[in-house]
Design goal:
The chain is α+β, with helices and mostly antiparallel strands. 38% of the residues lie in helices and 14% in strands. It contains twelve helices and eight strands. A five-stranded mixed beta sheet has the order 7-6-4-5-8, covered by helices on one side. It has a three-stranded antiparallel beta sheet with strand order 1-3-2, covered by helices on one side. It starts with 29 loop residues before the first helix and ends with a helix.
Length: 356
């Protein structure tokens, strides 16, 4: 059976499509794909975003350790009970020790671990503890919605499916916070979405430096995660990161969050990022001391290409917006998603969205 992957639909995939879009192909060849990925490795721009991102430590990911992760992943797919066998592997135990040391140097208790290229986000749903994360998140979401409805009875109502989507999004984010190296390596082994990157390093005669990145984990409200599209150094579009969840409390703040991101981008990012075209992920945290009302963080940059998630934009039908031929737009979800559409699209989510 196919494993659930709540995140794959909106995050970078391991291969780029080659369809022609309005006679424009952003990623036409495997060489394009490699170049686009390499130029948005975190190492390439971390110095520019350092004041506005999470504290990070870069650890060399040796090819022998990469091979062990790929091998352990294949075993895990055949038999999930093998997921802890890496505890006997010297290369991965060494990496776990280095991750623990990095955590200690950051002086934090919880960390988020990713690779130079992308994160193992899909592994959250495979954690034995994920159901508990989800149940806790759903309880909190239901409470928040009830309070919001009581305070503002005329607001657009949520729905049970929407609340469950919100909880799934929240839980899959929090579940990626780990306390140390062994838990981090478990995510690397169970994640499907990073395996193509690992195999590419193994297969490359001269791979670019490839790292495990240990980052401080910051708790945040998932409604404040956004994706911006930058073309010729101008922001052409902005979208809510998760294209399915309706956040009742976001609509009244739409203009404020938009202003905060635009001011930040124009003053801090646009002049400093060398790339002309890229996709940028923002995270906002409320701060009443700021004139905009928010601290703006940068999560990462992604390639400006068809294989990057478009959020509420389509690389096919909205390309003219994304490349600046049509006016800039900021899109958020305006009403709860149709439950039947979700049932049709993603049956894998059924366990959480449509409990028996």
């Amino acid at each position: 059976t196919q494993q659930m992957d709540f995140t794959q639909v909106k995050l970078k995939k391991t291969s780029g499509p080659k369809e022609v879009i309005n006679n424009v192909v952003l990623c036409a060849t495997s060489e394009d794909y490699t170049r686009l990925m390499n130029e948005t490795y975190l190492e390439e721009y971390i110095d520019v975003i350092k004041p506005f991102t999470f504290k990070s430590v870069f650890l060399n990911f040796p090819v022998e350790a990469i091979k062990e992760v790929v091998s352990a992943h294949k075993k895990f797919l055949e038999n999930p009970a093998t997921r802890t066998e890496f505890h006997k592997c010297p290369e991965l135990l060494q990496l776990a020790k280095e991750i623990d040391a990095a955590r200690d140097s950051l002086r934090v208790e919880r960390i988020f671990v990713r690779l130079s290229s992308r994160s193992p986000k899909d592994a959250a749903l495979l954690l034995p503890s994920f159901q508990a994360f989800f149940d806790s998140a759903l309880y909190d979401v239901k409470q928040e919605v009830a309070h919001l409805t009581e305070a503002n009875p005329s607001s657009q109502e949520s729905s049970d499916t929407n609340d469950r989507l919100h909880a799934l999004y929240r839980a899959s984010t929090v579940a990626l916070s780990v306390d140390g190296g062994l838990a981090a390596i478990d995510l690397l082994i169970t994640s499907k979405r990073i395996q193509g990157d690992l195999q590419a390093v193994i297969d490359s005669p001269s791979p670019s430096p490839f790292n495990v990145v240990v980052r401080e984990f910051k708790y945040f409200d998932v409604k404040y995660e956004f994706r911006g599209f930058i073309y010729n150094k101008k922001m052409t579009a902005l979208t809510q990161y998760n294209e399915y969840v309706y956040f009742p409390s976001l609509a009244p703040r739409k203009a404020d969050v938009e202003k905060a991101m635009h001011e930040f981008f124009e003053s801090e990012m646009s002049p400093k990022i060398k790339l002309n075209n890229y996709v940028i992920d923002f995270l906002l945290i409320e701060n009443k001391q700021k004139t905009t009302g928010y601290d703006v963080y940068i999560v990462e940059l992604n390639p400006f290409a068809e294989f990057a998630g478009g959020g509420l934009f389509s690389w096919v039908t909205d390309l003219d917006v994304l490349i600046g031929k049509k006016p800039y737009e900021f899109r958020i979800v305006e009403k709860p998603v149709d439950s039947n559409a979700i049932k049709t699209m993603y049956n894998d989510w059924g366990k959480f969205l449509f409990p028996e």
